[in-house]
Every structure is written in C-alpha cells, then in structure tokens.
Amino acid sequence: MDYMPDDNSRYKDVDYWDERYKTEQCYDWLGGFSKFQHLLEEHVKKEDSILILGCGNSSMSGDMYSAGYHSITNIDYSSVCISTMTARYSDCPGMTWHQMDVRQLCFPAASFDVILEKATLDAIMVEEKSPWDVSPQTACFVHQALTEISRCLKPGGRFVSVTFAQPFFRKRLYARTEYNWSIKQYSYGEGFQYFVYVMTKGEQLSPEDAALEKKLLEKNQLEDTKSTPTRIATTQNEDNEDFLSNIDL
C-alpha cells in the first residue's frame, strides 16, 4: 500500500498518521536500530531511563528492549499508534506508551537520563521548501520542543537526535545557551550519510558552537532592525525514504 500523501503538509496532520497506522505494520525512518546501535551504546546505558519522541510504529523501541534497555517510555501524538504499540509490546515490563505532544511533555522536570528522537524533528520541518531557511512558525515549534526536552532531562542527561540533516544546518537549531547543553556529532550509513547529535545537559557549548549562536543572534538582530521577519537556517536534503525524498527544494 502506498502511504505517501498527496501533499507534504499532511505529514503534520495527526489524522493522516491515524489512518496510516490503521494498516501499516512497521516503518523505520533512517534505517533500523542496528545501523546506529554502536553509536548509541557509547552514550546510553542499559539502566538509563529513556524517553522516545514520536515513536511511530518503528521497531526501534522493541529492538532496544531486546538489546537490554528495559526502561523505555514512548510517546506519539497518534492515538491509533499508541493503542497498537501498547498491544504489540504488552509483554515488555518497563516499556510504556503515551499519547502526547512533544511541545507539551507531561513529565516532571529532570525525569529522564536519555531523550531520543529519530526523524521526528525532520517530520516537523517537512513543509519547509528552502534548504537554508525555516519559517518562523516551524522555528517556534522546534524551539518549544527543544525547551521541553531540556526541561525533562536530568543533569548530565543526553538528548540524542538522529536525522538526515547535516551539521552545518541542524546545529543552528541546537546551539542555544538556554537549552543548557553541549553538542557532539556523529554519522553513520554507507553512501548516504545520516547524523547523530548528542546533547549533554549541564555542559557548555563548545567555543565553536557558542560563536555560531552569537553569529545567528547578531544576524537576527540585524534583520529585526530592518523589519525583516526572523528566519532560522536549517536544511532538508534529499533522501530515499518516504517524505524525505519528496521535499521540494
């Protein structure tokens, strides 16, 4: 069955996902867990409490559970997804599923050792047409999500972001002092490269990332003086996976 929508904007519509999850059994964006497991094991301990954002019907949570990660909380904004996945993994103690918006996480501050997302933020930005600019509306959405992620991380906790977005563009979203984290980057894949960013709560930005934040702040202030709407730079590269291959650049 073809699950590709007629318009990319549908990827931000919960009704689209509810309908899709009624028939689609499983789909793993950016490859399965085994593709980046070696990187994850460097930053995530088996005993860590883990929150997975936008879990979808991916096998990643189940694969992680089989690999020894037994404290996993999953969220998605599709009720159909959460119902299906709850039933599918009902025999996995310590694995829970909740319908939730990434911009309003219903957890106390400092709840998790690790928060993980794989292509969830990419989906949020799917309507962006330019490889250089994110609209103010989408930038606000991403900022709200990142603020909540930072709030829910324990001191020393890690936010792990798996994406197709190159460092030159994606770090512009992550390098903000207010999130109170450092940034490290890794990559995996043969031919087409995917990227893994690890943000550690309580560590300072590197001089390079701090300089990037300052440069972007000065750019935005200059645009404000010219009465130009602020836009935050990012990218969306072509990919062979579903919506990623259909972004009109």
UniProtKB/TrEMBL annotation:
Belongs to the methyltransferase superfamily. Keywords: Methyltransferase, Phosphoprotein, S-adenosyl-L-methionine, Transferase. It comes from Seriola lalandi dorsalis. Residues 223-249 are annotated as: Disordered. Pfam families: Methyltransf_11. The keyword Methyltransferase applies. It catalyses: L-lysyl-[protein] + S-adenosyl-L-methionine = N(6)-methyl-L-lysyl-[protein] + S-adenosyl-L-homocysteine + H(+); N(6),N(6)-dimethyl-L-lysyl-[protein] + S-adenosyl-L-methionine = N(6),N(6),N(6)-trimethyl-L-lysyl-[protein] + S-adenosyl-L-homocysteine + H(+); N(6)-methyl-L-lysyl-[protein] + S-adenosyl-L-methionine = N(6),N(6)-dimethyl-L-lysyl-[protein] + S-adenosyl-L-homocysteine + H(+). GO terms for molecular function: S-adenosylmethionine-dependent methyltransferase activity. PANTHER family: EEF1A LYSINE METHYLTRANSFERASE 4, SAM-DEPENDENT METHYLTRANSFERASE SUPERFAMILY PROTEIN. Signal peptide: none annotated. InterPro entries: Lys/N-term_MeTrsfase_sf, Methyltransf_11, SAM-dependent_MTases_sf. Protein-lysine methyltransferase that efficiently catalyzes three successive methylations on 'Lys-36' in eukaryotic translation elongation factor 1 alpha (EEF1A1 or EEF1A2). Residues 227-237 have a biased composition (Polar residues). Residues 53-160 form the Methyltransferase type domain. GO terms for biological process: methylation. This is EEF1A lysine methyltransferase 4. The keyword ATP-binding does not apply.
